[in-house]
Amino acid sequence: MRLRYNFRLSPAPAQQVALARAFGCARVVFNDGLRLRREAHAAGLPYICDGELSTRVITQAKKTSERSWLGEVSAVVLQQALADLNSAYRNFFASIGGKRRGPKVAPPKFRSRKDTRQAIRFTKNARFQVTAGGRLRLPKIGEVPVRWSRCLPAEPSSVTVVKDGAGRYFASFVVEVAERPLPPVESETGIDLGLSAFAVLSDGREIDSPRFLRRADKKLKRLQRALSRKAKGSNNRAKARLAVARRHAKVADARRQFHHQLSTQIIRENQTVIVEDLAVAGPARTRLAKSVHDAGWSAFAGMLEYKARLYGRVFHRIDRWFPSSKRCSQCGTVQQSMPLNVREWTCPCGAVHDRDVNAAKNILAAGRADRLNACGARVRPGPGLAQREEAGSIRGAA
Length: 398
Known about the structure:
5-stranded mixed beta sheet, alpha+beta, elongated, 9 helices, 7-stranded antiparallel beta sheet, single chain
């Protein structure tokens, strides 16, 4: 399987200028290709194929005085910018044709030099190299120092250099990694994700929500107020915007670290992990939007999924419409309604349930049933012959 390994870069001032030039050239090539295809569509001309587009916006453009500076950067960077445009068009066509699942994909749009995130990609054709001294050698940029936190498990197939909104540089390596199965264990768990508690496991363990954004809210408000007072276009406004971006980046880094540590712990302790396929788009439009985004459920579930595959565990999602909170985990009775303020309830069978623990138990049971069904086994026992001590199977029989 393919994984990404991200490391912080520390480019020198001259290398930052070269990276900015590469970001700009990639953006111009992307926009030129998009403009040509839009003009062809408006004029009723056929769709410009990938090869012809590359010839017109790269090869021929370098020979003109307006785009001669495209030759100052690696040609692979320009080709990868067009590859991103082609992928965006393919995703758009697949979406409107019904071949792509999920929400509809919008057509590609022009990139701006004011975008907070800039990125370029180098493939093996660019001959990038990690030197013996631990530096990343990039064509026409030089050897950039890398802050290695761990070793790469294999030779990378590509590297993407990213500049985020906080002004930080990262190298994202794509590496082919072999699966490393862990010793099998007997335990299985169902996870109910929430807001008051980040996660509740089916064994009753409750994991508190760190609420990183809420904890940084006071300082973020102060920085946002300072940003709003700065004149647009001034250097002081750029500094204030950078301070806000750095604070948000710190919050995002802390949340990501929490997700990684917790997901690794759960995967190591359990052979099977079952979660609910949550619809985040709905709660993200309510008054709980800030708390929902602060929790980061989708990112956490994605980490569980790929780590389960990497370490030989089983990961399963159940249907989002499954009534995990309203169903009694002992008798199976489903309540008519269950408002969010009800945290503990009593079933007519006499069982007293904690809302989240009961939901986690139901998620685990539903995931087990789905897995058996997917393997071809019976989820429910089929009809059998009635024993002598049992009632007959004919309607009306006593």
